[in-house]
Structure formats: structure tokens, C-alpha cells
Write a structure and sequence with these properties.
About 25% of the residues lie in helices and about 25% in strands. With about 375 residues, the protein is α/β, with parallel strands linked by helices. Strand 1 and strand 2 form a beta hairpin.
């Protein structure tokens, strides 16, 4: 793993969060490098204000920390990685503000840097918000792998900002430049709302929520096989819009339910959906934005429900599932259980056997399997 981002005027040591836990994955990419090299050709005054979107691990925030920087990300892990890498490089945080995607943007921005997110709806949400604060003097540069920039991507920049063009590709990355002729201040797309079939549940989904337009088939299968029992504390780990935790709350009205996700938009959606769909639930319901169950109290939970992701940003990986399983094992009380759903080919039972020394197939179909492991 190359940790050093070395450019003409910048040398940074960058790590994914937590430091050195993911040795095979680099904490910056060629799009970061391309954007930084391009900005070096601009005249950027010391007190310039820089607005950065989707800086996964802090390469851009660290590069411009001497300016007035606002970094916007929906990811708790990105927030933590940015703080970690600022500290790692002994950089000042005095002028750096990191916020989630639902907080109002600052005005009078000189430079906007956008890493194109994986989710087009999140990009649209961010560009719509941006259209309210940019001016003709604002320089706008976006970047991504060339294969991830499509006509639909460019159409959103044209719609919300103005005339848009692209650069030549370098190291398989490409940049997007938008020119503001006049402020558009277009309407920010509302959260998507839909009803869950065969239930009386209605779900609201912000822009970056997983499967925001419909219930994913793995989740649908999972909710049909959730356990009912004398549980006191249940965690919906990686909760998304909260459908699994909401169903568990209805099955187990005596239990405390904790909704956990690393997406701020997911937790915001889950809060709205719990308020709309779980009335008269006596025990407390709480919400936690976190990296899995990092630093969660050990031996404190009776049941963990999990539909683990198999990617981080655009990287396909099983390390998130593995961390979820390890954290669940630590958080569970003796006798407590982890229920997971996953594609059959992912062989999650092997990982669960390593941790729990047992597993039981609760249900399966042609594509998915639900597995229980008991501590």
C-alpha cells in the first residue's frame, strides 16, 4: 500500500480509517492527484474559501487546510479519516470544518472541489444545494475515474450549475469543469417516499440511502424471517432506512432498538421512518452514526440484525462485513445472537464459524441465505 501522496508542493501521509487496518487499499486515488495538480495552476489566495465534497479519506482537505475549508461528506468513516490524516500530518484544523450533507453550505466560496460519488442521487442533491451558494467567480472542479463519468453525470452539472466541459484522461481519471454565468438556485430534490408491499409501513429515503427507490430483495427476504423473543436490546446494524429495525420493533415491542449506520443520511431517514411507523413503542429507541459498532459497550446486546454491504465507495471488499461480525460478537451478551442476510456465494458462514464457532441456516432461497450465530 502506497501511503505517500507526493506532488510538487505537497507531501502527505494518508491512511484509510482506522490507520493501517486495511493494508491493501490506498487512501487516495489519481483523481485526487489530478485535481490537486490542476488547482496548483490557479491563483488561490491564502484566505480563499474552499468547499470540498466527498473527500473519502482526507487527501483534498489535508492539501488545502491552510485555506478556509468546508468539507461535506455523508460518511462517518470519511469524517474520522479526515481528522486522523490531519493529525497524522500535523496539520492545523483551525480553519477546517467537516459537516454532513444535510447541513446548509457556506456562502462566498472561491473554489469547489467535488469527488464524484457512487450514487447519482447524492450528486444531484449536492449540486442542487451548491446551486444556491455559487457565484460567477466560483471555480468548480470535479473529478473521478473516467469510467465513472457518464452523460448523466455531465447533464446534472449542466442542469444545476451551467456550462460544463471535461478534461483529457490522466491515469484513468478525468476532471469536470463548470462555469457559472448566473446563480440558478434550483429546488433541492425531496426525499423519496414509498410504501412497503404487504405492510402498513411507509419509508422516506434521503439521497444516499442504500436502495432508496425500493426495498432491496435481500432486505425483503430478511424481514420475513426476523426473530421474536424476550430480547431486551436489539441493534439494526447498517440500518439504512431502518426497515429491519422497524420490523423488529413491531415483533418485539418490549425491546430497546438501536439503529446504527455510518451514513448520516441513512440515520436521518431511519429517524423519520421510526417516527412515522413505530407508535406506542415503550422502551427507548436510539440512533447512532458510527463505524460499525466501534467502541460500543461489550456484552450489552441480546440481538444484532445485519444486512452487510460488500463495497466501500467503489471498492468491492468484504472487510466491512468482517468488521460488522467482529463488532457484533464483542457487543453481544453471552447467549446473544447475530442474524445476517447475504448472497449465497459470499460464504459468510465461514467467517461466522471463525468468530462464533457455530452457525445455523435460518432460511435460504435461490439467491440469499439468512444465518444465525450465537455467542
Amino acid at each position: 500500500m502506497n501511503t505517500e501522496l507526493s506532488l510538487e508542493n505537497i507531501e502527505l501521509s494518508l491512511y484509510r480509517y482506522p490507520k493501517r487496518s486495511i493494508e491493501q487499499l490506498q487512501a487516495w486515488d489519481s483523481a485526487d492527484e489530478y485535481m490537486i495538480n490542476t488547482v496548483a495552476d490557479l491563483t488561490l489566495a491564502e484566505q480563499s474559501s474552499v468547499l470540498i465534497f466527498n473527500d473519502s479519506f482526507g487527501a483534498l482537505t489535508c492539501a488545502y487546510n491552510q485555506h478556509k475549508v468546508t468539507t461535506v461528506s455523508d460518511s462517518w468513516i470519511s469524517h474520522a479519516a479526515i481528522a486522523q490524516n490531519l493529525d497524522e500530518n500535523e496539520l492545523s484544523t483551525e480553519q477546517v470544518k467537516v459537516q454532513d450533507c444535510l447541513v446548509a453550505l457556506p456562502e462566498n466560496i472561491d473554489l469547489v472541489l467535488i469527488k464524484i460519488p457512487r450514487t447519482l442521487s447524492l450528486l444531484e442533491h449536492q449540486l442542487a444545494m451548491l446551486s444556491h451558494v455559487v457565484t460567477p467567480h466560483t471555480k468548480i472542479i470535479a473529478g473521478a475515474k473516467a469510467k465513472d463519468i457518464h452523460n448523466s453525470t455531465l447533464a446534472l452539472f449542466e442542469k444545476y450549475l451551467g456550462e460544463t466541459k471535461t478534461s483529457l484522461a490522466k491515469k484513468k481519471s478525468r476532471l469536470i469543469f463548470s462555469t457559472i454565468t448566473q446563480a440558478k438556485a434550483l429546488e433541492i430534490p425531496a426525499a423519496v417516499t414509498w410504501d412497503v408491499a404487504k405492510t402498513n409501513i411507509s419509508l422516506s429515503n434521503h439521497a444516499n440511502v442504500f436502495s432508496r427507490n425500493n426495498l432491496d430483495i435481500g432486505g425483503n427476504f430478511f424481514m420475513q424471517h426476523l426473530p421474536k423473543g424476550e430480547y431486551q436490546h436489539i441493534i439494526d446494524l447498517g440500518c439504512g432506512n431502518g426497515i429491519i429495525g422497524i420490523t423488529a420493533a413491531r415483533l418485539n415491542p418490549q425491546a430497546k432498538i438501536t439503529f446504527v449506520d455510518e451514513s448520516f443520511m441513512a440515520i436521518a431517514s431511519a429517524k423519520e421512518n421510526v417516527a412515522a411507523n413505530v407508535q406506542g413503542h415503550e422502551p427507548e429507541i436510539d440512533f447512532l452514526v458510527n463505524n460499525c459498532l466501534y467502541d460500543y459497550e461489550p456484552h450489552s446486546v441480546d440481538l444484532v440484525l445485519c444486512n452487510p454491504p460488500f463495497h466501500q465507495e467503489k471498492a468491492i471488499t468484504d472487510h466491512i462485513a468482517w468488521q460488522m461480525f467482529k463488532d457484533a460478537h464483542r457487543a453481544l451478551a453471552w447467549g446473544g445472537a447475530l442474524y445476517i442476510v447475504g448472497n449465497r456465494h459470499l460464504d459468510y458462514h465461514i467467517k461466522l464459524e471463525r468468530l462464533f464457532d457455530n452457525h445455523e441456516v435460518v432460511a435460504s432461497n435461490a439467491k440469499f441465505v439468512i444465518i444465525k450465530a450465537q455467542k
